[in-house]
Amino acid sequence: MTFYPCVLVNVVSWIFPEFKFQWLVDETKRNLPLELDFVCEGNNAERVARMLKQFSFLKVPKIVWDLTTERVLTMEFCDGGQVNDKDYIKKHDICITEVTKNLSKMYSEMIFVQGYVHSDPHPGNVLVKKTPQGTQIVLLDHGLYATLTSYFRVNYSKLWLSLIASDVEKIQKYATRLGVGDLYQLLSCMITARSWKSISSGISKQVTAEENAEIQQMAALYLPQITDVLSRVSREMLLILKANDLLRGIEYSHGIQASTGYFLTMARHCVRAVYEWRHHQCGSRWCRVRVACAKHWTLLRIDIYELLLRWSDSALIVWLTSRFAVA
Ligand SMILES: *[C@@H]1O[C@H](CO)[C@@H](O)[C@H](O)[C@H]1NC(C)=O
Ligand SMILES: *[C@@H]1O[C@H](CO)[C@@H](O)[C@H](O)[C@H]1NC(C)=O
């Protein structure tokens, strides 16, 4: 039995298999009629291909509509190796850190900005393939998609920004909005796969072996509370935890761990989600101009921060990070 040192959700499903089973069954039942309709799956595939067309690395197999009915789905054949297939990746000389970086960009766009999320994220649905234009990521199985409410999407984005900025008060505020109340520290650990100590002192630092041991211990110690968190949050949050698991699982199976770059990618998407929502709420042109400027300024600060990080890890940088917290 492999034990994921940092994936709390997996630990829960390992110890309480029936628990995970239950919510998965509910989830699946809810979507069953849709999943059986392949016309719907074809439409989902085309929608997501359009929505993510800016990512040149992403390949969604084309649907052959002439040969597709409610009961038969015909699509372009795409080959490649599963994203957790170590041998394949090594043999084809694929850079796995780049794959996870691209995957997290793609998932961040789906979750934070678009609110339309592939709901069956497991390694079998993600193939990688080396092409002359670069490494391609093939996303399969479009039967199940979840649409996130803007309530969830925007408040979850703010939670992430607070996590990255180590702003404990705001972490509590936004975690409470997602329904966990006093278990906000635990939820934070579950979505970041970091210890509370590192969340409250700066998540952008590298994970140490010591921290991993701490998280592992915590997972065992707080099992009942973890179950409690899972029962309090919405289906949307469960789905997001599942998507997190996909990324963490891939990283774990290849022996790499989320770096600063990963958190900055998330931060950029969260900033876009929050400001684009504000923009949408604006009643006047002046308000829209102001919000657009604030958005670009915040994104620019993240770029500067990333540049600075290349050569130092100083207090100035910590100060700068705290500046892109969005109220
Ligand atoms: C990641 O995306 C970039 C373009 O955004 C692409 O050039 C590169 O090949 C991709 N790499 C992988 C490993 O997916
Ligand atoms: C976030 O949560 C607050 C408090 O529950 C709610 O009033 C607000 O509308 C939510 N944000 C969005 C964009 O829906």
UniProtKB/TrEMBL annotation:
Q: Where is the ABC1 atypical kinase-like domain?
A: 7-174
Family label? Belongs to the protein kinase superfamily. ADCK protein kinase family.
Q: What is this protein called?
A: Uncharacterized aarF domain-containing protein kinase 1-like
Which species does this protein come from? Priapulus caudatus
Gene field: LOC106810748
